[in-house]
Amino acid sequence: MEQLNIFLENNLYAIILMLSLITVISVVWSIILSSQLVSLGKKYKKFMRGTSGKNIEGVLLEHLENLKENDDKFAVIHKQQELMQEQLDKCIQKQSIVRYNAFNNTGSDLSYSIALMDNYDNGIALTGIYGRNEFIGYAKPIENGTSSYPLSVEEQMVIGRCSKKKANSKE
Fold this sequence. Notes:
Elements: H1 2-10, H2 12-48, H3 56-89, E1 94-100, E2 111-117, E3 123-130, E4 135-142, H4 153-164
Antiparallel strand pairs: 1-2, 2-3, 3-4
């Protein structure tokens, strides 16, 4: 026991220095761990936001349920988009117009033919023929790019132009 006392007396400064160093290292390590704990706590609160205190399994199950609901909503929206596209394809998508002089003595290109068609080449051909004393208008239905009524050269021209166009093109 005496030898221990002598060793402690001889090395007291070294022992105090070592213990002080260990204490400083412990304090620094404690500060580092505390800051990491605060950061982890913030991340945990962010992760658990809106879960009303549920455990992680509950949070994940809630998120999976939300994903399924979103998938169902996406499927409904996709189906609605397809229906809207079908309806849009049946709206006027293509048009063409040609102006011409129907009679040599009228002086200007006052007559016209217009074709208005959907994506299925169905629609209407409108023709207006201007003469000096009268104006005559014709409307002819178009189905699949043709009409059951006789078509003038100008009407065939505008229908042909429309049939060649793609919907929503800038031709």
